[in-house]
Amino acid sequence: MNDTITGSISQLSSLASGTQCTASELNQALTRLAHVLDEANENALAFVAETAAGSCVGNTIELATARLGVAEICSRLLESLESGSPMDLAGADDILLPLLFPTDVTGPATDVHADTQTRKASDRRRDDSVLEETAEAAGPLETCCCQDEELLREFLTEAAEHMDAAEQLMLTIERTPDDAEALNGLFRAVHSVKGSSGVLELRSLGQLSHVTESVLVRARDRDLSLTGRTFECMLYATDFIKRQVEALVNCQSSKSELQCPRPPKSLHQGLHSICDNGQCDPSLITEIRDHLSTDQASDRTSDASASSKKTTKAESMRVDSKRLEQLIDLIGELVIVETAVAQELCERDSLSAASVAGRLRKTVREVQELSLTLKMVPVGATLQKINRMVRDLSARLNKPCRLIIEGGDTEVDKTLLEQLSDPLVHLVRNSLDHGIESNVQDRLDAGKSEVATIRISAEHRAGNIVIGICDDGAGLNRDKILARATEKGLVQPSQSLTPHEVDQLIFAPGFSTAAEVSDISGRGVGMDVVRKNVESMRGSITIESQPGQGTQISLELPLTLSIIDGTVVRIGTRSFIIPTLSVIEQVQASTIEFSRGDTCMLGEFRGRFAVARRLGDVLATEHSAETSHGRVCVVVESGTRQQLFVVDEILGQQPVVIKPLGGILESFGFFAGGALLASGEIGFVLDLNAICNSNVGTNLNDIL
């Protein structure tokens, strides 16, 4: 690695770590670093430094946040230079994002560029470099290499919006060149495109937007006015940036090689001339106009050819989340109405009515399934945000640790994911604070790596999403847990507990084994809240720990919180709903061999024994007299366990929209919600995790 680069990054890091540095000093140091990186042909990283320099003084973030962000950038720049790979944006949080993806640059330039001549000279040097690269370009198209498809998609969506706004702002400036608000808005748009394209290594787009931004900086400084030929050149520049964005969008939509048009050399020369002299030579304007006119004609020919091939382009648009919620709620109501209508049609002795009912059911089901995917998002973005927290906390606790994320592309309901974010952060923090050994030598003596590992995995399983947090630390100290629980009166001294029961004590309210209270842990507020939050989402949390080997915590949650497929069962005169994805099989209870266990009834099912319950006893509902067909046994799965529920009758399956319960029903504990059935009756959705974890209904009375 270049020693000059290392020295510049170290100086910048030291400056950012101080409490006396100003925004202007950060700006100047970042600008110097950008030049050093540029000299070493690290153009993408130079754009990162240049973008952060502009953001530090662009009224986008507070000075304290800027210092933290610059320190983080220094660390990631070193990692990128050492590995030879693009700068890693994983876990880019609210501190880093405003520096690299600025969105709110407001107000006229003030004293943020105190050394104006130095700034102009630095921009001139960068522009000269751009001109040289443009002159050496091998063709009209640049092949781009962006490895983060999700980040690229988000950038292109925002960039297209920015350039649409820029086009209107240019027309406003043409009418009123001194409109400061329009000028600031134009600078905002180009600055955002420049910063993001630099990070994503879209060189041509980043270079043109950088030179265009240089002109806008001078316009904001009142060094020049966007009128006449100056305005015309700037209009061509913003048009070409928009064209580059559209080309990248088309490439990504068609899943073809990512290619971006290179701007003509004359356009760079014209912008450069404006930076130097405040105006553009007429001959350059003519050359730019002729060049772009030829390109546009070529584009029209390409568009006609593409349309003749009838290629399909995928598009995206933003929708208000409230409207999306309303749509899904209405589709849920439609599902209920469809079920009632289909039953009515099927009761008629008519083939045509049955056919209509079948088509209706198929169409509504397709609409329902499509609506559920509208809110499904990958969990990766949420999990990546934890990366920064692990990095900072491991340094603070002096516990070297790395975070591994698996299954980041697993999708889940966005609402559920937002509610899951805080519990995940707490669980990972607990693993690092309590699970990982404090002494590195202890790890080495145990044959472990000096650097600890926390692994977060996500996968779909039986219609649910399962998220695991696993560490290779020392495991739960059960002796310490039991001693603290006895001290707090949670366990009697004479009481004997299994290892599993000891592990469950960490979920007790106010429980903590920390020796002292800190801002990380020790207050006893956390694991109990995590479990309540998970259970409020109809999920479950399990913990497995091996002394000296580590701890595995698993969260199992439904994919969506709104609509489920339910198996409707009858107990006495009441109807209850069991989530269909948790139902393994339905058999006549008379075919099951029941026997008495030590503390509960057991049923033998396919050569295995499982706890058997009369669901009426669990729900405090009287079973009806046995029907001619006999009672039915529903085999359900909750987590890794299977249990047998005896019910009076299975009424069928239907999609249901889950509604929250209130009052006394909410505190009952065994209901996940209520739903309106096709018959018009209210059914209660059973919380299988709560039922399976309880001892209710497992008495030794005759189960039939």
Explain what this protein looks like in three dimensions.
By secondary structure, this protein is an alpha+beta fold. The strands form 5 sheets. It has a 6-stranded mixed sheet. The longest helix has 27 residues, at 149-175. It is flat and about 100 Å long. The N and C termini lie far apart (77 Å).
Identify the notable features of this structure and list them briefly.
flat; 704 residues; alpha+beta; 6-stranded mixed β-sheet
How do the helices and strands line up, and which of them pair or pack?
Layout: H1 3-17, H2 23-39, H3 43-56, H4 63-83, H5 97-100, H6 116-136, E1 141-143, H7 149-175, H8 180-199, H9 203-220, H10 228-253, E2 259-261, H11 265-277, H12 282-308, H13 321-346, H14 351-373, E3 376-378, H15 380-397, E4 401-406, E5 411-413, H16 414-435, H17 440-445, E6 452-461, E7 464-471, H18 478-487, H19 499-504, H20 527-536, E8 540-546, E9 550-558, E10 563-571, E11 574-579, E12 583-588, E13 593-596, E14 601-605, E15 608-614, H21 615-618, E16 632-638, E17 641-647, E18 649-657, H22 663-666, E19 671-676, E20 682-686, H23 688-692
Parallel strand pairs: 4-6, 11-20, 15-17
Antiparallel strand pairs: 1-2, 3-5, 6-7, 7-9, 8-9, 10-11, 10-18, 12-16, 13-14, 14-15, 16-17, 19-20
Helix pairs in contact: 1-2, 1-4, 2-3, 3-4, 3-8, 6-9, 6-11, 7-8, 7-10, 8-9, 9-10, 9-11, 10-11, 10-12, 11-12, 13-14, 15-16, 16-20
